[in-house]
UniProtKB/TrEMBL annotation, chains A, B:
SMART domains: FCH. It is found in: Membrane, Clathrin-coated pit. It is a peripheral membrane protein. GO terms for biological process: clathrin coat assembly; clathrin-dependent endocytosis; convergent extension involved in axis elongation. Residues 3-247 form the F-BAR domain. Coiled coil: none annotated. It comes from Cyprinus carpio. Keywords: Coated pit, Coiled coil, Endocytosis, Membrane. GO terms for cellular component: clathrin-coated pit; clathrin-coated vesicle; plasma membrane. This is FCH and mu domain containing endocytic adaptor 1.
Length: 302, 302
């Protein structure tokens, strides 16, 4: 790609295209920062929404057999919130890197502009010489036209010689302009060649840097994507692990709706109060049927 | 897990725990729908934000060597927007499934409540018999205490016989209450056993259905996660594929800042106008140096 840039050709806009293109490099850097800033904001919003979702899960009814599942939802949503919060942080770090690069870019461009002043002068000099060249060419040609006309009209020899002298002088002036123009051209070519290379180096370094920044962007997103995948896998596993039997067991443990059934009640012979307290207690227990006690509410309609 | 539910045991709250637990099943279904609705809203917001991000990318400056990269950002962001929009749609479909299940659930619970009315009556009957049993037991024991006291006091035989008769009658009444209580107990046990099994079947079917709905939820999220991964991979590949040389080449093609250099200008002999127009044009062209024309602006400071 050496010498990809040079300023001539059918539709060239010249030195200033390359000169101004540096500015577009700075614009691109700022736009990339803006893009990443927007992405960071999106991830922050997503993270907050996931925290809200975790809150909804934690507000799930603690009653009923399904209750323990809400914890699985809550944990998963909280973890997703963290993943996206981390991505937001990484995006913010990246914005700092982009801004830092932008500052370096400004310095490099300022330095480069000083370095290419010579080329700018050479461009202007070539423009001046070009204009002289055009005039000299027109002058020479108009003298030739005049000489040809006089020859056709058959004017006196003296007048013809005068016109020939004028034509010769115009030819010399034209040749001199060509000489000067070509000298300016060689100077321009050498300086422009150096500047074009400089501009190209700047562009290549710029694009290399931008691609590095984009790589950091996509690495961060990729890391988060892997983490999010792990959170999903965990969620699936947790749902799988909480079996239906498990949930029903937890419920019966919690509510005490166990398997014990009431045995039949037998006749209880009266015993004198001399009998020990302990044996009295154990007998009394046989009559208590907790499922039917006063503290149990009557069923009502839902 | 057969007979996981029965209503007796140390801390039982009885029939009504199982009866009311159906209501918690409906609450869980509604809460799951609410959770998924929130998730759908989150994905919709994320999708819209990604479209906005794509817009930012498409507004990236079309000037400069970096310009073609914006298309890579735009395409990727647009695709991410689509992925999350699809997830939102799947969540909305899931909400419909959850609501449909909730309607079925309401019907099943209504039917079940009718079916367990007999058990409810049996519970009430057992409570009544239990209360009679307690009274009969107390009556019998108080008569025994009275008889014992009279014996100790050595009251006349006639009075003692009267008390013995009372005690015997109280014992018969107590035995009758036991008989009735045990009959009610057997009826209760049979009906409660059926109802407990019914409640357990309902719980198991409910949890099975809820787990199916959760599976649909996590499958949709997983699908989207895979798609998002593909979009990221594509983005990375596209960035990789647009080489720095490529970008510079595109720029030089677009701007025409090619490699062509100005050749030296030579002396141009004047030719008579008789020479064809075509050859005149081609000569004139040799003097045009487009990079230095009037239409090119002077470089200005950034």
């Amino acid at each position: 790609m050496l010498e990809a840039f040079f300023v001539l050709g059918e539709k060239n806009a010249g030195f200033d295209i390359l000169y101004h293109n540096m500015k577009h490099g700075q614009i691109a850097t700022k736009e990339l920062a803006e893009f990443v800033r927007e992405r960071a904001a999106i991830e922050e919003t997503y993270s907050k929404s996931m925290s809200k979702l975790a809150k909804i899960a934690s507000n799930g009814s603690p009653l009923g057999t399904f209750a323990p599942m809400w914890d699985v939802f809550r944990v998963s949503s909280d973890k997703l919130a963290l993943c996206h919060l981390e991505l937001m942080r990484k995006m913010n770090d990246l914005i700092r890197d982009i801004n830092k690069y932008n500052e370096e870019q400004v310095k490099i461009h300022r330095k480069t502009k000083e370095e290419v002043i010579g080329t700018l002068e050479s461009v202007q000099s070539l423009q001046v010489q070009n204009s002289h060249l055009q005039k000299a060419r027109e002058g020479y040609h108009s003298k030739c036209v005049e000489l040809e006309r006089l020859r056709k009209e058959g004017v006196p020899q003296k007048e013809l010689e005068k016109a020939e002298l004028k034509s010769k002088k115009a030819a010399e002036s034209f040749a001199g302009s060509i000489e000067k123009f070509n000298r300016a051209g060689r100077d321009f070519e050498q300086k422009m060649s150096e500047s074009a290379q400089k501009f190209q180096d700047i562009e290549e370094a710029h694009l290399r840097q931008m691609k590095l920044l984009i790589k950091a962007y996509s690495h961060s997103i990729e890391d988060t994507h892997v983490q999010v995948g792990q959170v999903h896998e965990e969620f699936k596993q947790n749902v799988e692990n909480i079996g239906i039997e498990n949930l029903i067991q937890k419920f019966t443990d919690q509510k005490g709706t166990g398997k014990e059934r009431p045995g039949p009640v037998g006749f209880e012979e009266y015993l004198s109060p001399l009998v020990s307290e302990n044996s009295k207690k154990s007998r009394a227990k046989a009559f208590r049927i907790p499922g039917l006690g006063k503290r149990d509410k009557e069923p009502d309609s839902m």
